[in-house]
Design goal:
By secondary structure, this protein is mostly helical. The chain has one domain. 52% of the residues lie in helices and 3% in strands.
Length: 125
């Protein structure tokens, strides 16, 4: 299933009322949903610049969603599963990971810029 279709289905399904006010991955669920939606939107429009900070945050969110969906009602589990599928799709489709720190990709001794790291199994566009 394409990312844009998964995104539309998630938006259509909405957030279960029992999720409101809960924190997952240190963020209230409404803000977390908005954070993931922003990443999905940027990924769909090919404007997401995946850096190590964003990648680490998405991995943290995925782990938190996995652990939460095991202890939840069926509606909440379905919501967490949809969010987690979106997070996973962004991680796969976002393109190469760049250094989060502006100077992290530079070799101080030579002034050369290091190559952009690419996740295994992901082809460059």
């Amino acid at each position: 299933m394409q990312l844009s279709q998964m995104w539309r289905e998630h938006l259509k399904a909405g957030c279960p009322p029992e999720m409101r006010g809960l924190d997952i991955a240190g963020t209230q669920i409404g803000a977390l949903d908005a954070e993931i939606t922003a990443c999905v939107s940027a990924c769909v429009t090919h404007s997401l610049k995946m850096d190590t900070r964003i990648e680490r945050r998405l991995h943290d969110i995925a782990l938190a969603l996995e652990s939460y969906q095991d202890q939840a009602t069926p509606e909440v589990a379905a919501y967490c599963t949809r969010l987690n599928k979106l997070v996973s799709a962004v991680l796969v489709n976002a393109g190469p990971v760049i250094a989060a720190d502006k100077d992290a990709g530079r070799d101080a001794s030579t002034g050369d810029t290091a190559r952009t790291a690419v996740r295994p199994g992901v082809r460059r566009r």
